[in-house]
Amino acid sequence: MATTTVPGGAVHDLPDDLRAELTDHDDALAAWLDITPLARNEFICWVEDAKQDRTRARRIRRTREELQEGMRRPCCWPGCSHRERTGS
Fold it and tell me: pTM for the complete prediction?
């Protein structure tokens, strides 16, 4: 599946390190392709919010694991603050 175009999120582009993790695991990639751009955006923002390389690596691994477990949004993440919010 490495030749498959892997989409990013609604606001965030897919970083290369997360793309590599997804393309190395067909089941995680299939789950990624099945979620919405907003859901992908949440995972990307969560990964990119990490301040340390070790935390980022752990979040990339957890993204893969959570997708493999059927989760469609990152656990314990309040949401992307970069996405424009509408409403009151």
Answer: 0.84
Tokens of 80: 């992307």
Higher pLDDT, 12 or 79: 12
Spatial distance between the Cα atoms of 7 and 59, rounded to a whole number of angstroms: 18
Q: How far apart are CA 83 and CA 64, in angstroms?
A: 23
Residue with the two structure tokens 């989760």 = 71
DSSP 8-state symbol, 80? -
Report whether 41 contacts 50 (CB < 8 A). Answer: no
Rounded CA-CA distance 47/61 in Å is: 10
- φ/ψ (deg, to 5) at 78: -70, -15
For residues 12 and 49, is the Cβ–Cβ distance under 8 A? no
24/40 Cα distance (integer angstroms): 17
